[in-house]
Amino acid sequence: VQLVESGEGLVQPGGSLRLSCAASGFTFSTAVMSWIRQAPGKELEWVSLMARGGTGTYYSDSVKGRSTISRDNVQNTLYLQMNSLKTEDTGVYYCARTQGYWGQGTQVTVS
User: Which of these, 12, 17, 36, lies nearest to 92 by C-alpha position?
Assistant: First the structure.
């Protein structure tokens, strides 16, 4: 199992960013996938989840209405589109699969 995030960036408040997570080594289309973040000096925070096959999407209150999780089951890629970014969105963003598989993370800085 391999998960590789990309899309890191420095954006101004109010800006947008799209994160990607390239998945390999498992059947991506049937996997429940999540985005999780960690702000500097804070605990891990679950951000969003997409059920297998895209049958359901869920968001934390902190990003609801500003973010969209999506997946491309042909490209085996998970996305997180983030809009109206706030300084409190700064952190390292990880994509994760059930059973404890995580990527290495990608840095988002809103300043």
Answer: 36
Residues, the chain, total? 111
Closest among 67, 68, 97 to 84, alpha carbons compared: 67
Return per-residue pLDDT of the chain as tens, 111 residues: 999 999 999 999 999 999 999 999 999 999 999 999 999 999 999 999 999 877 799 999 999 999 999 999 999 999 999 999 999 999 999 999 988 899 999 999 999
What is the per-residue burial (b if ≥16 Cβ within 10 Å, else e) of 4-43?
ebebeeebeeeeebebbbbbeeeebeebebbbbbeeeeee
Distance CA 65, CA 83 (A): 9
Task: Give Cα separations from 29 to 8, 21, 53, 75, 99 (angstroms).
Answer: 24, 13, 6, 10, 16
CA quadruple 61, 4, 91, 40: dihedral, nearest 10: 120
- Output the CA torsion 75→1→97→55 (10° steps): 40
